[in-house]
């Protein structure tokens, strides 16, 4: 590689190398333009999908190898707010115990009514629960997403709802954490409810309010919009999926999946609607395992189409 | 933080004559990408994630010149985009490419005797990548809450990058050895 300055050969080499760098810059711009303009079934998306398919087993193995380090970091990070969380959980526990008693009698009533109306339980009959481990996460805050080690070979389709496994004690089992945004054999990408692109038709339990639209607001929090002011909403109430989107169309999420808890209500005199701040039951970024609802019935498959 | 082996700065002519060790650079970059998408994407402070790929690309540029830095940046960025669950192709490739080229320009200068300079370079590179990616996302129509982005994502990212990348830089410096310009990008001025 030794070259002397200011010789013809040196200049040619320098020009060649400049051309290579310029070519790489041009390649980046072309890739970016094509990727943004093409549909999700386009060639570059296909290449990305193929790369993800190849990388998934590698990520799975590498993830196993480094998981003790990841766990150690999560443990240290959790220590910071462990005390305040314990106090909050203690208060929460007392409230939930009272609700549980009330809930049990209501569940019996619902079961009886469902039997009378001939309506199935929904989740148990329409979906198979497929547990998966998180093998990759988005490397940027702009995409709140993760990759699971289960895919289309287990019946998972795009728009399958994804729930928390509930084994880490951070939230109730079955709390909604996201939706499958891409799937292939062996792996599936999950876009979290806290991502800016995710919108969920949701309602506040026992408020009698029509469904609103739940979307990301400030980092880690959600905002439920479209709830009329005449329906009183209190902090602490549970927000669940409505089964419908905000404009009455079927939602990809079946009704009744818990999402989070009301943490604040904003009412402005000039508007007829209120904005409800919602804290998700589960911080999807910390979950190691998730459960995907793979559709098994025609009704659930139609729901996934949206 | 000082590295004894960094002290032996060499002239540009001597650097050009040395063997390049391209495969070592490729191996370091590949391992950095693998660690970034497996371990480091789980390491969070707020919404910040350390940028170990930036450290690998800076190392490639600083100690092997702009062409190696550019190719390493392009390949690393593309690999990250293809294997991470994000809707982006070409953006990280371009940003890391720029980092590699700029870092490569400093390969022609006298090498610093401590690790502070490459570490500062890595943090600035991570800042450039974060801000660059944010600008692209904003140009695509996503909303940016600047104070929140700076406080919860940008600053924690830079802190984690500063804390966790020195071992990568030290390892890269040790296995790559003295700076050797594989490609004399600016021969006429060297």
Overview of the structural elements:
The complex is a heterodimer of chains A (306) and B (190). Chain A is of the alpha+beta class. Chain A has a domain at 127-306: Rod shape-determining protein MreC, domain 2 (Thrombin, subunit H, Beta Barrel). Chain A has five helices and twelve strands. Chain A has a six-stranded antiparallel beta barrel with strand order 1-2-5-4-3-12. In chain A, strands 6-7-8-11-10-9 form a six-stranded antiparallel β-barrel. The radius of gyration of chain A is 24 Å and the shape is elongated. Chain B has one domain: Arp2/3 complex 21 kDa subunit ARPC3. Chain B contains eight helices and no strands. Chain B is globular, with a radius of gyration of 16 Å. Classes of the chains: A alpha+beta (306), B mainly alpha (190). The interface between A and B is large, with 62 and 65 residues.
What descriptors fit this protein?
heterodimer, A: 306 residues, alpha+beta, Thrombin, subunit H, six-stranded antiparallel β-barrel, 5 helices, 12 strands, 38% helix, B: Arp2/3 complex 21 kDa subunit ARPC3, globular, disordered N terminus, disordered C terminus
Return the CATH class of one domain in chain A.
Mainly Beta
CATH architecture assignment of chain B: Orthogonal Bundle
Strand content of chain B: under 5%
Q: Any low-confidence stretches of chain B, pLDDT <50, length ≥5?
A: 1-11, 13-19, 185-190
The CATH C-level name of chain B is Mainly Alpha
Distance between the termini of chain B: 29 Å
Unreliable spans of chain A are 167-171
Largest sheet of chain A: 6 strands, antiparallel, barrel
Report the CATH superfamily of one domain in chain A: Rod shape-determining protein MreC, domain 2
Round the Cα radius of gyration of chain A to an integer and report it: 24 Å
Please report the total strand number of chain A as a whole number: 12
């Amino acid at each position: 590689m030794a070259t002397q300055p200011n010789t013809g050969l040196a200049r040619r080499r320098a020009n060649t190398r400049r051309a290579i760098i310029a070519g790489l810059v041009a390649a980046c711009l072309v890739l970016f333009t094509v990727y943004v303009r093409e549909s999700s079934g386009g060639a570059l998306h296909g290449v990305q999908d193929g790369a993800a398919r190849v990388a998934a087993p590698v990520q799975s193995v590498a993830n196993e190898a480094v998981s003790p380090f990841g766990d150690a970091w999560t443990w240290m990070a959790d220590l910071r707010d462990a005390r305040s969380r314990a106090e909050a959980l203690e208060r929460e526990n007392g409230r939930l115990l009272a609700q549980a008693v009330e809930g049990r009698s209501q569940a019996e009533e619902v079961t009886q009514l469902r039997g009378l109306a001939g309506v199935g339980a929904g989740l148990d009959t329409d979906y198979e629960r497929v547990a998966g481990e998180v093998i990759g996460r988005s490397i940027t805050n702009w995409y709140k997403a993760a990759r699971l080690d289960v895919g289309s070979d287990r019946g998972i389709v795009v728009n399958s709802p994804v729930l928390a496994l509930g084994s880490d004690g951070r939230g109730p089992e079955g709390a909604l954490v996201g939706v499958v945004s891409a799937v292939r054999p062996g792996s599936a990408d999950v876009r979290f409810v806290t991502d800016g692109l995710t919108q969920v038709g949701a309602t506040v339990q026992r408020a009698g309010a029509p469904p609103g639209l739940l979307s990301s607001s400030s980092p880690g929090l959600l905002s439920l919009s479209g709830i009329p002011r005449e329906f009183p909403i209190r902090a602490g109430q549970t927000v669940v999926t409505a089964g419908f989107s905000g404009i009455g169309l079927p939602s990809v999420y079946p009704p009744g999946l818990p999402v989070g808890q009301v943490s604040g209500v904003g009412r402005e005199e000039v508007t007829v609607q209120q904005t409800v701040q919602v804290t998700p039951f589960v911080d999807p970024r910390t979950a190691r395992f998730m459960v995907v609802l793979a559709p098994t019935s025609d009704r659930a498959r139609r729901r996934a189409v949206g | 933080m000082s590295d004894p082996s960094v002290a032996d700065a060499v002239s540009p002519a001597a650097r050009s004559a040395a063997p390049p060790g391209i495969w070592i650079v490729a191996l370091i970059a590949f391992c950095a990408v693998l660690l970034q998408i497996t371990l480091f994407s789980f390491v969070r402070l707020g919404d910040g994630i350390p940028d170990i790929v930036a450290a690998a690309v800076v190392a490639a540029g600083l100690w092997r010149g702009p062409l190696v830095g550019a190719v390493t940046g392009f390949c690393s960025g593309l690999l990250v985009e293809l294997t991470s669950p994000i809707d982006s192709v070409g953006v990280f490739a371009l940003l890391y490419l720029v980092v590699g080229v700029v870092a490569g320009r400093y390969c022609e200068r006298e090498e610093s005797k401590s690790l502070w300079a490459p570490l500062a370079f890595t943090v600035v590179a991570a800042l450039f990548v974060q801000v660059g990616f944010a600008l692209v996302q904003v140009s695509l129509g996503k909303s940016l809450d600047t104070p929140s982005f700076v406080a919860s994502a940008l600053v924690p990212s830079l802190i984690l990058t500063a804390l966790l990348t020195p071992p990568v830089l030290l390892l890269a410096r040790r296995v790559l050895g003295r700076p050797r310009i594989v490609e004399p990008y600016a021969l006429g001025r060297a």
